[in-house]
Amino acid sequence: MLNVKLNQTPIEYVKGIGPYRGDLLKKELGIFTAGDLLKHYPFRYIDRTEFHKVNEINPQWPSVQVVGRLIRLSEVGVKRARRLVGVFSDETGSVELVWFKGIAYLQKLLKVNEVYVVYGKPQLYRGVINITHPEMETYQSSSSSTISTYIQPVYSTTEKLKKSGLDSKGIRQVMLSLIQHNINQVAENLPEYVIESNQLMGKREAVRAIHFPKSQEELNSAVSRLKYDELFFIQLGLLKNKQLTKEKFKGHYFSQVGESFNNFYFNRLPFPLTNAQKRVVKEIRNDTRSGFQMNRLIQGDVGSGKTVVALLSMLLAIDNGYQACMMAPTEILAQQHYKGIQELLGEGIAKVHLLTGSTPAKERRDLHAALEAGEIHILIGTHALIEDKVKFKNLGLVVIDEQHRFGVEQRAKLWLKNHTPPHMLVMTATPIPRTLAMTLYGDLDISIIDELPAGRKPIKTVHFYENRRQRVFGFMREQITQGRQVYVVYPLIKESEKLDLLFLEAGLEGLSREFPLPEYKISIVHGQMTPKEKEGEMQRFVQGKTQIMVATTVIEVGVNVPNASVMIIENAERFGLSQLHQLRGRVGRGAEQSYCILMSGDKLSKEGKERLQIMVETNDGFRIAEADLKLRGPGDISGTQQSGVLDLKMANLVTDQELLSHIRNQVIAIFDKDPQLMLPENGRLNAYFQGKKKGMFWEKIS
Ligand code: ADP
Ligand code: MG
């Protein structure tokens, strides 16, 4: 947290900005205050100890920095080939500088015979080394800074800002003056003991040094400090939230394990629970009699048996006089849960109903009434559950399946369906790497089902190129002859639903030739069908009337067909690893050996090959999620997209995992010792929340 004054000083009042540039900064970079500007950290530095001579330049280098003179500047070519070409030399030789954009502007700006510092990516073009769209700065201005002599900040900016004088150099000048005059207003925000035990640089020094470091070591220290800061305050916020929830919300008290639970557990449950399932049921049991509201996330790989854990929890609610509901992201999944749960329960244990978008109006009205009268014990459904008209008599537990499909708001709406908020159990089959879970769901308790029911044979996975197509067809025939069923999945193309269909239709043509009627029957499910049509096709497959299910990824979630033993994924390179893993989880649910065949085009990047290789090597969802995080970054992992938590400026969720765990533990220890942050040593943390309450930092993490 910076000093209040800096965060309240409008950007236009900062020396060197004024109203015009101020408006631009707001629009272009979202910088509204002096404090915001200070947080506009450099994205790289010019290390003035790292200059190269022109004759040393290797076109393979990612970037190079040279000092030299602009010898010539001329416009060449016409129309699309029109460009500005500069000849740039030092005492060892010359390179070409090339611009395709902003030609008129640059012609005014650049001066022949001036000495410049040039930075960019070298390339070899027709035997000549050139640098396209280099960053240029006059040598003089690059050495004019009074604080730093060697390492200079480079700031991101935009065309419009550049035209108003706020190119990187312009920003540097404003920043320099701001820091010279106002750095004393930057206040320390971490407790002394935290700074000491982690050997951190002070906040003020770090803010100064991130912009104008005196040495590489100093820069490193500043980066460490600001990373620490960033992660610390995220965790502080999350854990404070968790604690507030506990204080504020008394939970329903499930005092007893009663008849519904016991009757089901001892008389109906067709299999023994795995140890992991037992452990999680116990955790839920403990939460629901703690007097506080439960907020628990269950992570468990596909097929790990989350549903039955949810069911046992719902029975617990019923035994204590409450109702329960379970929300699933799709109609198909909701129906499957409904049928599955009814089958498991049999008659007489609990009254279960289904509510989805396609429940007819009349039935819906009756259902609403029965629900309010408390005649329905368990309501299963889709988003339809959230509607205001759906009122419970006494909702004690909410289960959300595949929780990453729902936004926080939707969760919140269910939560508000009772004046005492119900216990919340959210489930996901997308294992989230630990660090990500800590950051995304740091305010939830987490249970992990890390064990599959006994007797499951691990799915065999292979990666084939197109040339094995005939063998794959042969294998499908073999499996179908043995009575098994086969999925063939095509990628969902984000940009175009039509393209999805094209992929699917092209594949379908080949399949129908190889697997002709009447011997073979094929179900087709894709995004452009109505829910009803989809359901019909799914049903045919579930009932074994068709042997092959051709689909886009609509079957990703939850669908359970134990007799299906082969999953073929076309264009597998187009899927994320976690998604592939989810799809693979559709098979291997019965007693038979199951297979997953990843088909890919012949032209596969090295990275693409590696990714598919990971799928071949492991069935462990957590390992796959970690790999996915490393390969693609957190933004691509399901469920992270809507979360602003991932807009980290300094820290990196992939490379700073250890630091994050360390910080989380420290923050937990702080709250353990001083839950209200009332000890004098935690004064700064207390002040942080006081400030937040007043709304001064509402949009700031720190
Ligand atoms: P998921 O965690 O993917 O939601 P499900 O709850 O759908 O998994 O369970 C997958 C299958 O495994 C279901 O058919 C379920 O009945 C079965 N199952 C669950 N727990 C066990 C167990 N302990 N032993 C044997 N089968 C189980
Ligand atoms: Mg499930």
TrEMBL record:
<keyword id="KW-0067">ATP-binding</keyword>
<protein>
    <recommendedName>
        <fullName>ATP-dependent DNA helicase RecG</fullName>
        <ecNumber>5.6.2.4</ecNumber>
    </recommendedName>
</protein>
<keyword id="KW-0378">Hydrolase</keyword>
<keyword id="KW-0233">DNA recombination</keyword>
<dbReference type="InterPro" id="IPR027417">
    <property type="entry name" value="P-loop_NTPase"/>
</dbReference>
<dbReference type="InterPro" id="IPR004609">
    <property type="entry name" value="ATP-dep_DNA_helicase_RecG"/>
</dbReference>
<keyword id="KW-0347">Helicase</keyword>
<dbReference type="InterPro" id="IPR012340">
    <property type="entry name" value="NA-bd_OB-fold"/>
</dbReference>
<dbReference type="GO" id="GO:0043138">
    <property type="term" value="F:3'-5' DNA helicase activity"/>
</dbReference>
<dbReference type="GO" id="GO:0005524">
    <property type="term" value="F:ATP binding"/>
</dbReference>
<dbReference type="InterPro" id="IPR014001">
    <property type="entry name" value="Helicase_ATP-bd"/>
</dbReference>
<keyword id="KW-0547">Nucleotide-binding</keyword>
<dbReference type="InterPro" id="IPR045562">
    <property type="entry name" value="RecG_dom3_C"/>
</dbReference>
<dbReference type="GO" id="GO:0016787">
    <property type="term" value="F:hydrolase activity"/>
</dbReference>
<feature type="domain" description="Helicase ATP-binding">
    <location>
        <begin position="287"/>
        <end position="449"/>
    </location>
</feature>
<dbReference type="GO" id="GO:0006310">
    <property type="term" value="P:DNA recombination"/>
</dbReference>
<feature type="domain" description="Helicase C-terminal">
    <location>
        <begin position="468"/>
        <end position="630"/>
    </location>
</feature>
<keyword id="KW-0227">DNA damage</keyword>
<keyword id="KW-0413">Isomerase</keyword>
<dbReference type="Pfam" id="PF17191">
    <property type="entry name" value="RecG_wedge"/>
</dbReference>
<keyword id="KW-0238">DNA-binding</keyword>
<dbReference type="InterPro" id="IPR011545">
    <property type="entry name" value="DEAD/DEAH_box_helicase_dom"/>
</dbReference>
<dbReference type="Pfam" id="PF19833">
    <property type="entry name" value="RecG_dom3_C"/>
</dbReference>
<dbReference type="Pfam" id="PF00270">
    <property type="entry name" value="DEAD"/>
</dbReference>
<dbReference type="InterPro" id="IPR047112">
    <property type="entry name" value="RecG/Mfd"/>
</dbReference>
<comment type="function">
    <text>Plays a critical role in recombination and DNA repair. Helps process Holliday junction intermediates to mature products by catalyzing branch migration. Has replication fork regression activity, unwinds stalled or blocked replication forks to make a HJ that can be resolved. Has a DNA unwinding activity characteristic of a DNA helicase with 3'-5' polarity.</text>
</comment>
<dbReference type="InterPro" id="IPR001650">
    <property type="entry name" value="Helicase_C-like"/>
</dbReference>
<dbReference type="GO" id="GO:0006281">
    <property type="term" value="P:DNA repair"/>
</dbReference>
<dbReference type="Pfam" id="PF00271">
    <property type="entry name" value="Helicase_C"/>
</dbReference>
<comment type="similarity">
    <text>Belongs to the helicase family. RecG subfamily.</text>
</comment>
<dbReference type="InterPro" id="IPR033454">
    <property type="entry name" value="RecG_wedge"/>
</dbReference>
<keyword id="KW-0234">DNA repair</keyword>
<dbReference type="GO" id="GO:0003677">
    <property type="term" value="F:DNA binding"/>
</dbReference>
